[in-house]
Write a structure and sequence with these properties.
Length: about 270
């Protein structure tokens, strides 16, 4: 793998991991367009996700460090503010669906799910979920619905949909929050915090797999270059989405997903 191609994949990953257009889907399409070898592609993508995970940690450091602090307080049976305890339990329990389903589908994700037709279908279905989530959220526009543990678990099941390339982790988790009555800003914040444990775990696991298989010896430099690009672009993408969704809906991304899906079906 050439360094230029690795940097391109890193830019694609960083730009699309957090914007609700599906990073895994775009990485699959980028490889097809560039004519790249797909060997260890899932592991490579997971390491790029590890770089974008670092971007989440930097951007939401206050929230994440607060969760870690409260986790140790919880283990030590110390007092935690009720709202912070709810967030902690929602993140822990909301992470379980993606972990369990991800382990069950791990082999399929590296083979069956890595094709452009499935990406196109997922882009369309995911776009419809996002569209109806926005429509549904209008019913709660005047209501004060807060995050609780049950809603956190519900959003966790939406996050599990993102295991299939084309759905988008941010798109599904934000949509899940909207369906469950959360304000768009709160749904966006929770989506990023909820994604952190899954992204971190998947990235570290695949990094260890690459190391044990000796792959890092052959693509280490390329992987580092791609990860660096993914990290910096990821921070910019997070800031863009958080700022954008304060005043706008996800409908612009829905249109993009439909257009891209049609392009994939006709040209790829």
């Amino acid at each position: 793998m050439e360094i230029v191609n690795s940097v391109i994949l890193g830019i694609v990953q960083g730009a699309t991991e957090f914007i609700p257009v599906s990073s895994s889907g775009h990485l699959i399409l980028a490889r097809e367009i560039l004519g790249m070898n797909v060997a260890y592609s899932l592991a490579f993508d997971a390491v790029l996700q590890l770089a974008t995970t670092l971007a989440v940690l930097v951007y939401f450091r206050k929230d994440i460090f607060g969760l870690v602090k409260n986790f140790f307080k919880f283990v030590a049976r110390k007092n935690i503010e009720p709202k912070e305890l709810i967030l902690l339990k929602a993140v822990i329990l909301g992470t379980i669906p993606a972990v369990v389903i991800g382990l069950f589908l791990e082999d399929s994700m590296d083979t069956l799910f890595r094709n452009s037709f499935l990406v196109a279908m997922s882009l369309i279905v995911g776009g419809l979920i996002m569209f109806f989530a926005e429509r549904f959220s209008k019913r709660y526009a005047e209501k004060n619905v807060d995050l609780n543990v049950k809603r956190g678990i519900g959003v966790g099941f939406f996050q599990a949909l993102a295991l299939i390339p084309g759905f988008s982790r941010s798109g599904m988790t934000i949509s899940g929050g909207l369906f469950l009555g959360l304000k768009r800003e709160e749904a966006t914040r929770f989506a990023f915090v909820l994604a952190f444990p899954v992204l971190l775990g998947a990235g570290l696991k695949k990094l260890l797999d690459l190391g044990s298989n000796g792959v890092l010896n052959s693509i280490g430099i390329e992987l580092f270059a791609g990860s660096l690009a993914s990290f910096f672009v990821g921070i910019l993408a997070i800031h863009f989405l958080v700022t954008f969704l304060k005043k706008h809906t996800m409908n612009a991304f829905v249109v993009y997903r439909f257009v891209l899906a049609i392009a994939v079906l006709f040209f790829v």
